[in-house]
Design goal:
Elements lengths: L2 H42 L6 H13 L13 H33 L14 E4 L3 H12 L4 E5 L2 H9 L4 E3 L5 H6 L7 E4 L6 H11 L4 E6 L5 H7 L3 E4 H14 L2 H8 L8 E6 L15 H5 L2 E7 L2 E4 L12 E5 L10 E3 L9 E5 L3 H12 L3 E6 L8 E2 L5 H6 L7 E4 L4 H14 L4 E6 L5 H6 L4 E4 H13 L13 E6 L8 H4 L1 H5 L2 E7 L2 E3 L13 E6 L1 H12 L3
Parallel strand pairs: 1-2, 1-4, 2-3, 4-5, 5-6, 12-13, 12-15, 13-14, 15-16, 16-17
Antiparallel strand pairs: 7-10, 7-11, 8-9, 8-10, 18-21, 19-20, 19-21
Helix pairs in contact: 1-2, 1-3, 2-3, 4-16, 7-8, 9-12, 9-16
């Protein structure tokens, strides 16, 4: 029998015993007082009363309510002293009984302790709760995957349950807690506590269910070997992943990737637009925007939070700060509250990285691996820092030579500093692309309003990477993914519709367009039939693109 049930049975037995003893004590006291009172009335007041009468008077005296029928006899000093002592003892009983019995009983009756077990199966167990886990939860819900939060804070568990989440209370380090979370029938577990606690959770999870996929989250690269040694199948380094994602944006925008992939002879140009606060597009589904068909604008893809949707469905809702990749007469978007983002075709010659902590260091290293020159700015004089100074001052920005840099990555660890820096940078060098880090999701819109062109929050990036790791056949493209576009002939699927070809499930790539007679066709219906001279344009990770080419060309 689980420990929890044994504990509940012991508590129930204890309460029954305490209540029985309390009732027996009250009965003995009342009966004793009644016998003594009856004797005193006979001995000192010369009055014979029944035992029932005596008991009634004693109860009235102890409760201090309704007594007074025998007050004439109480003129005798001995009887008056007895009544006084009974009054005092009655008050003491009340004051003792309320804290010892009444209050605990009411607390138990009103007990709203959160649950400690679940009946979920084929679920993902999320140990801990943070803003990152909310992003993961949304993706799991979209994919139809059940999930369960396990947290050691009962108030947090109660709050989660009140908002409609599945959650239980318990210490995720304990095997018993994971058994209560039904880990034996779970598909995966995410350890999101801290670098020292996660390995204990991992070891317990591996014992309960060795076949369950275990993913751990850490802030530092140094903790990765310890988490893997404990048994983690995947380790997501949150700050390093964010730095790499910021660097990948600085290397090449999505519009550049798409432009480079298609045949330049068709004359189409592609551009990214930021949907700013107050835009007429905010809150509308793509199919509801009349401007798109009127101006021949096609939404090829877009950043929605920290994930990129290729060929977003017509019912996709455009949110504030979404970034749309469009073709056609895209200049018309500026009239409805969308801001064109900088686009610099070709390999960037230099990128400025402001802030040389974990995030900035990961960004600089990623850029250097691609032979992109970096200028590192930090307020502390340390190895590899090129400009020592406060990034919020004009002089530091001038020293960093923003005028001949393609982008500046704000990797500082303070959102207020990043916001203030964005404002100053746009005044000093309006045309430079500002790529900013946000620690708090609530500050993302502030950074965009301050002039940043591309903002990634630590919780969003980490949550989307976790989702991409856990969701089978996932089509989530994150800023961390090295996804590309490819153009290729497709003799193996000629004559088939997109539904029949089923290339997304077979290869992991999504067909985003078709070049036919030097014209780009997008927004393809599932019934679209592939012809012999068509060139398919697809998006996906490098490995998925290789598989896509092999499948559509019948390569072995």
């Amino acid at each position: 029998m689980p420990d929890r049930f044994l504990e509940e049975d012991a508590q129930s037995t204890n309460w029954r015993l305490r209540i029985s003893l309390a009732l027996a004590t009250v009965f003995v006291i009342v009966l004793s007082y009644a016998l003594i009172y009856r004797w005193a009335m006979a001995a000192f007041a010369n009055e014979q009363i029944s035992l029932i009468h005596s008991i009634r008077v004693v109860v009235e005296i102890l409760t201090t309510a309704g007594f007074g029928g025998d007050t004439a006899a109480w003129e005798h000093d001995v009887i008056g002293l007895m009544v006084l002592l009974m009054n005092i003892s009655g008050v003491l009983f009340v004051f003792l009984a309320i804290p010892l019995f009444a209050v605990p009983m009411f607390r138990q009756a009103l007990d709203t302790s959160p649950p400690t077990t679940t009946d979920l199966t084929d679920h993902v167990i999320i140990c801990g709760h943070s803003a990152m886990d909310d992003v993961l939860r949304d993706e799991l819900e979209s994919a139809g995957r059940p999930y369960l939060f396990v947290d050691s804070d009962p108030e947090e568990v109660t709050r989660l349950i009140e908002t409609g989440e599945d959650a239980i209370y318990g210490n995720a380090e304990r095997v018993q807690t994971l058994q209560n979370a039904n880990a034996e029938q779970a598909t995966a577990l995410v350890a999101d506590l801290d670098d020292e606690t996660n390995p204990t959770v991992i070891l317990s999870a591996a014992r309960v269910n060795p076949d369950m996929k275990i993913v751990s989250v850490t802030d530092t690269h140094e903790a990765v070997p310890h988490h893997r040694y404990a048994g983690a199948d995947e380790v997501v380094i949150s700050k390093e992943s964010l730095g790499e994602s910021l660097a990948m944006r600085a290397m090449k925008t999505v519009s550049e990737r798409f432009q480079d992939a298609i045949n330049a002879e068709n004359g189409d140009r592609f551009q990214e637009y930021l949907v700013v606060e107050g835009s007429q597009l905010v809150g509308k589904e793509i199919r509801e925007v009349d401007l798109f068909p009127e101006q021949g604008i096609t939404v090829i893809g877009g950043w929605f939070g920290a994930k990129f949707l290729v060929s977003p469905p017509p019912q996709t809702v455009i949110q504030e700060n979404s970034i749309l990749l469009v073709s056609g007469a895209h200049e018309a978007l500026e009239g409805v509250g969308a801001r064109q983002l900088p686009s610099h075709h070709g390999h960037p010659s230099r990128v400025v990285v402001a802030g040389y902590g974990d995030v900035g260091r990961a960004a600089a290293q990623t850029l250097e691996e691609e032979d992109i020159a970096t200028t590192i700015v930090d307020s502390t004089n340390m190895l590899d820092v090129d400009v020592v100074g406060d990034i919020t001052t004009r002089q530091t920005l001038i020293d960093a030579n923003l005028d001949d840099a393609r982008s500046i990555i704000l990797a500082v660890d303070n959102d207020a500093t990043a916001i203030y820096s964005s404002i100053i940078i746009k005044q000093v060098e309006p045309d430079i692309e500002v790529i900013a880090r946000a620690n708090d999701e609530e500050n993302v819109w502030k950074l965009y309003n301050a002039g940043a062109d591309y903002v990634l929050s630590l919780p969003s990036v980490t949550g989307e990477i976790l989702a991409a790791t856990l969701i089978d056949k996932q089509t989530i493209l994150t800023p961390h993914d090295e996804f590309e576009f490819t153009c290729t002939e497709a003799p193996a699927v000629v004559g088939q519709t997109l539904v029949e070809a089923d290339l997304r499930n077979k290869t992991g790539c999504t067909v985003v367009g078709v070049e036919r007679n030097n014209k780009l066709l997008t927004n393809l219906e599932p019934s679209f039939t592939i012809e012999s001279d068509d060139i398919l344009i697809a998006a996906g990770a490098p490995s998925a693109i290789d598989e896509f080419r092999r499948v559509v060309k019948k390569e072995e």
